[in-house]
Design brief:
Structural class: alpha/beta
CATH topology of the largest domain: FAD/NAD(P)-binding domain
Bound molecules: flavin-adenine dinucleotide, 1,4-dihydronicotinamide adenine dinucleotide
Strand content: 25-35%
Number of domains: 3
CATH superfamily of the largest domain: FAD/NAD(P)-binding domain
Oligomer: single chain
Helix content: 25-40%
Radius of gyration: 23 Å
Number of strands: 22
Length: 462
């Protein structure tokens, strides 16, 4: 029986970051992982492979749509799907091997196998039981199921199957206009697939700034995606090569059927706690199946913590990572903290969509007075040169104090631009602070500064 200060269950971005931080803080640490590779959903079947396919398909889009205009003439590339899959697998491999290297470097033991917690202070992996002063559950999430829809991961797939389809489908139905549906829907649309997105609500990406939602949907329509909004999927019927999706329009209960070569079910994810033995431990759970924790990530059982997708909050890799670092610090007797008010969200389509903090809608609900500064990428020289003038930066600031409350960007490199605003928000900055900061020319970042100027006396280039 080996004995540790900390055993972490799960090696996703929550678990592996937590393990490394624990080791850096001088703790003896092990991480249990049941899959053959480290890195969890994010590295194996999530963030990394989806971004590889978004990158590859974006390159094709650029070649098809913008190369000739820049004087780059010649035959457009064709899609070698097998090679694209192998590029994706290579990318995954480099990243998962990277975590293995970091574990070795930091002397984190990888306990290979599926872990369970027979009692506080003990973790069972296979036939071995290990002692741990502290246990951190970072077991992540899995796709939520949809009544009437049977996933076979060949024709009716979750994101996992959609990342490794046998071939590029001619027709794809995506159920759910959330982050997964729109990212992977974009990939296939760019590769030539006819993509129809069937969404229950009347808006895409629920919870986002309403103006961004509209602009985003309009942009995706222009890129060839078709949307059926306000439609509740009832069931799917699949053969080995095709599937029918039955849906009912919410406004008039009319029933419709759509057929495709593949169906992507992207209607959310749920916490994964199977096999951990939490019932027997009496660990308190939320009604939504998440592990309940306090502000130190402690569960209801002393010495057991939980972080990442398995607890409340946005299911995002960087949120899991931040909790991993903070929980490690708590275990080490320090004061780990996560500012949940400043967690950016990014959708890696083209253009990208990024947000942080309050939306106009939430502020209206709270009755809080605010002002908006907006700047279109059409007024940004770099964006115009790069065929990336679609979209805008919107900064929301407190009407009285000018303190930045939130930001919403749709446009080139939005996922990088948002961090300038995150840092500003962490420091309690005003829109004027951003506006008075010199920004290099010509950069996309100038659009952020211009939006900040628009919160005051006005932007220069609009
Ligand atoms: P996970 O990454 O799910 O890792 C949990 C790990 O625990 C798994 O490896 C699992 O095998 C292991 N495990 C579970 N139970 C046990 C057990 N009993 N014993 C041993 N091991 C166990 N987020 C972003 O921020 N940006 C993105 O671009 C992004 N893209 C995504 C794309 C897709 C297609 C998907 C599905 C998700 C994406 N996400 C993205 C979400 C992101 O992947 C998750 O929020 C993140 O992985 C959560 O990290 P985690 O550590 O909590 O759990
Ligand atoms: P989601 O919650 O983003 O979207 C699900 C969508 O499905 C919603 O729009 C919902 O209204 C719709 N829906 C639900 N039931 C339906 C039905 N019966 N018929 C039609 N539509 C229905 O969930 P998604 O896209 O599956 O993503 C899961 C998680 O993964 C998200 O929480 C997200 O944070 C994370 N993720 C993050 C990424 C990123 O940060 N770039 C990329 C991919 C995933």
């Amino acid at each position: 029986m080996a004995s540790y200060d900390v055993i972490i269950i799960g090696s996703g971005p929550g678990g592996y970051v937590c393990a490394i931080r624990c080791a850096q803080l001088g703790l003896k640490v092990a991480c249990v992982e049941g899959c053959d590779t480290l890195g969890g959903t994010c590295l194996n079947v999530g963030c990394i492979p989806s971004k590889a396919l978004l990158h590859a398909s974006h390159m094709l889009h650029e070649a098809e749509h913008n190369f000739a205009a820049m004087g780059l003439k010649g035959k457009s590339p064709t899609v070698d799907w097998k090679q694209m899959m192998s590029y994706k697998e290579d990318t995954i491999g480099q990243n998962t091997k990277g975590i293995e290297f970091l574990f070795k470097k930091n002397k984190v033991d990888w306990l290979k196998g599926w872990g369970s917690i027979p009692e506080a202070g003990r973790v069972k992996v296979g036939d071995e039981v290990h002692e741990a002063k502290n246990i951190i559950i970072a077991s992540g999430s899995e796709p939520a199921s949809l009544p009437g829809v049977e996933v076979d991961e060949k024709v009716v797939v979750t994101s996992t199957g959609a990342l490794e389809l046998g071939k590029v489908p001619k027709k794809l139905v995506v159920i759910g206009a959330g982050v997964i549906g729109l990212e992977l829907g974009s990939v296939y649309a760019r590769l030539g697939t006819e993509v129809t997105v069937v969404e229950f609500l009347d808006v895409v990406t629920p919870g986002m700034d309403a103006e961004i939602q509209k602009t985003f949907q309009r942009t995706l329509k222009k890129q060839g995606l078709t949307f059926v909004m306000g439609a509740a999927v009832q069931k799917t019927e699949a053969t080995k090569t095709r599937a029918k999706v039955h849906y009912k329009m919410r406004k008039d209960d009319s029933e419709h059927v759509i057929e495709a070569d593949a169906v992507l079910v992207a209607t959310g994810r749920k916490p994964f706690t199977e096999g951990l033995g939490l019932d027997a431990l009496g660990l308190e759970m939320s009604p939504r199946g998440q592990i309940a924790v306090n502000d130190k990530w402690e569960t209801s059982v002393k010495g057991i913590y939980a972080i990442g997708d398995v607890i409340d909050g946005p299911m995002l890799a960087h949120k899991a990572e931040d909790e991993g670092m903070a929980a490690a610090e708590q275990v080490a007797g320090k004061h780990g903290h996560v500012n949940y008010g400043v967690i950016p969200g990014v959708i890696y389509t083209h253009p990208e969509v990024a947000n942080v903090g309050a939306t106009e809608e939430t502020l209206k609900d709270e009755g809080r007075a605010y002002k908006v500064g907006k700047f279109s990428f059409m007024g940004n020289g770099r964006a115009k040169a790069n065929f990336a003038g679609d979209g805008f930066v919107k900064i929301i600031a407190d009407k009285e104090t000018d303190r930045i409350l939130g930001a919403h960007i749709i446009g080139p490199a939005a996922g990088d631009l948002i961090h300038e605003i995150c840092v500003a928000m962490e420091f309690g900055a005003s829109a004027e602070d951003l506006a008075m900061t010199c920004h290099a020319h010509p950069t996309y970042s100038e659009a952020v500064r211009e939006a900040a100027l628009a919160c005051g006396d006005g932007p220069i280039h609009m």
